[in-house]
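User: I'm curious whether this sequence folds into something compact or stays loose and floppy. Could you predict its structure so I can see for myself?
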Amino acid sequence: VQVVNNVTTNAITTAEEIVFMNVKERRMNEIVYGFSTNGASCRIAIGGPRNGIIHDFEVKIINATTYIFMSGRVGRRVGFFKTCNLSTRVCTQRTWRDRNHITRTSHRISVNSDASSIYFTDSAGGGDLVEYSLTAAAAGAPYELGNQTRRCEAVNNPNLLTQMMYASNVQVSPDSDNIIYISSHINHAVQKIQLSATGCTVITSVGTGNQAFARNNADPGNLAGNDVGFSGPWGLNVTSTRVLTSTSRGYVDEFN
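Assistant: Here's the prediction. I'll summarize afterward.
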């Protein structure tokens, strides 16, 4: 689920706040829907390839134009990547008949501010964080997936303060394209990563690294980061002022 403000399309001419979601129900998980915030009206629907399964999607407003990016798989061998300019409804879609292609093996995606790069969390690569280039043939055209430009390798049984863990979800910071947040359903933690020309450096980490079944119970500011308990923090949302996580146990935690 992603809530996006100021969405416009060729049908939505007055900017609206739209709740985008991908249905995981069988025979419906090839479609991303956009609803009004009260849930009463379906404002837009974008489909992937027939019989496809969307692993993740992201809606991004770039130069006042709303784009959607999605990746996933079709059957046992095919990966796909699709982008659409929602203002023109022009889309581009590409498939790869390769069971190891990043579009097929990734958990989650995140696009940087100008859509020059996209980040995948690679399940087949042991939870590595992988960057690919994005290019558009012309201004306003849908973006196409380019080549791999970076791979941050996950460490098995990491020191969470210094070594990158298995990446399940990923979010580019809204304030800097060189800051990446990841969460891990394997290592039960959240990390803030600094990107540079020479590598990927862990800046800080939140989480004990062990699965915790109880909720975090403390007054704001009174629970140390390395004492926070998670159980599979798949959900990750980053704003300029806070980081929100949701876990497989149904708990939501907020950090500043």
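Summary: The chain is about 0% helix and 50% strand. The first helix runs from residue 102 to 105.
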